[in-house]
Amino acid sequence: MKILFASSEATPLIKTGGLADVAGSLPVALNHLDHDCRLILPGYPDVLKKANDLQHLAHVEIEQEPTPVNLLQGSCGPHNVPLYVVDAPHWFDRPGNPYLSPEGLNWPDNAERFTLFCRVVAAFVMNRMGLDWQPDVIHANDWQTGLIAPLLSGEEKRPATLFTIHNLAYQGLFDQATFMRLGLPDHLWSYTALEFHNQLSFIKGGIALSDRVNTVSPTYAEEIKTAEFGYGLEGLLIHRENHFSGVLNGIDYHEWDPQHDKHIAAAFSAESFRKKQQNKLALQREYGLPEDAHIQLFGYIGRLVDQKGVDLILQVLPGIMDSGSQLVMLGSGDKDLEHSLEKISNRYHSRVGVFIGYDEGLSHRIEAGCDCFLMPSRFEPCGLNQMFSLRYGTVPIVRRTGGLADTVVDVDPTSLANGTATGFVFDNTDGSSLWGAVEHAINFYRRSSTDWEILARTGMQQDFSWEASAQHYLELYQTAIDEPGL
Ligand code: ADP
Ligand code: GLC
């Protein structure tokens, strides 16, 4: 099968969150299964700099587009996933990240930027550039690619379309004047297409007009069909129920492998679990905390945004401190949260280490060195860090939501008895519910290092590689081809 995978980010070229991990690893898994999956990305400076062997492929004529656009061809990452890059310097050659200026503000022309991206992808797959490769399926991801299916919806002989929701909280909403300015076909301004409460919604376009729609875990697929998580799109998702499903993400087992991880102090596996301690000591040293293998070490990595429940961690911090444990954190985002974290690391400098920023290597060392990983998300479409944690024998403490609920088995008498327990799960979005799980983890850790090791090693033996999920995606592509959903 020939698949074009359209994304606004992909590791190792450009990343702001988990979408990049998925775009960097699902195509590799599909190609290993002998399919032909190729990536298409916007030409940000990092993409142009880091892609392998980029060459000019075609000049692209796009309606409404006054500035030159070129399509480049090369490959992405160590597995050389075939890559196309939309080189439009006027829109993409900027500092900052794909969506924000260096000052942290949304680029004011994001609607124009990602409309251009979608228009180029649509022209590509309708063979308007005279290329010798055409996909059977176009797999679009998140709001930045939400206009691809609408732009193709009137076309005969279009490829099948799949739209994946990685996070319904980011929708690409703009006013009607923007819709007019973009020069999109008039008929798309309709409640059955892009119009959402008198606004232009990119994500609605992907959901309403793709042959198949999925999100990144079975539980989140159920949650977003309710008013609590659906942001007003729950009705549409219910309407599309027969063509909408949840497919759990995998993780990159080569990049995240405690036996061969170039970022960590000591390689280890479930069989040599004790060697994990050396990573703990190294991490304590790196954060300037007292080095002591017996102190229980908690970790957090992630974007500092409301979704992740970092405020709940702040609420349980006094309890963690009273227990004598340590905490290391890595993240960036919301300035108020960044300040709060810096404040607590000053206040508890011998027990709490905070690094504000983005650091790939440190994220590996945290996963390798901690005993427990905190992930108290308010909602979590899938979440990758709890899976990295399981693979590194770092016991996750998670809220029962989205992909967290689908990947962590709570420690209770039954799961302990049948050997399936992998972490601590709590229900409510409040400090006392999180504290219940943290206190349980603290007591469990103290009671018996043997039981703790069994718990951590059970996590390490779970399989969250891409193989099974890639197979699910292939089935989705095939049904989208055989039975178009529109
Ligand atoms: P989301 O996509 O909502 O941010 P995920 O758990 O799916 O959440 O993915 C987040 C990804 O970004 C993970 O690979 C995580 O390790 C990484 N990450 C987040 N913040 C940082 C950071 N400050 N430094 C390094 N990696 C980070
Ligand atoms: C989103 C979600 C996260 C998910 C990731 C990759 O950013 O917030 O839960 O793991 O996409 O699908």
**Total number of helical segments?**
20
Broad shape: globular
What is the CA-CA span between the terminal residues?
Answer: 21 Å
Tell me the structural class: alpha/beta
- Proportion of beta-strand residues: 15-25%
Number of strands: 18
**Low-confidence stretches at least 5 residues in length (pLDDT < 50)?**
none
Helix content: 25-40%
Characterize the largest beta sheet: strand count, sense, and whether it forms a barrel: 9 strands, mixed
Number of domains: 2
CATH 2nd-level architecture of the largest domain: 3-Layer(aba) Sandwich
The main sheet orders its strands as 3-4-5-2-1-6-7-11-12
Mean pLDDT: 97
- The name of the CATH superfamily of the largest domain reads Glycogen Phosphorylase B
What top-tier CATH class of the largest domain fits best?
Alpha Beta
CATH topology of the largest domain: Rossmann fold
Radius of gyration: 23 Å
Small molecules bound: adenosine-5'-diphosphate, alpha-D-glucopyranose
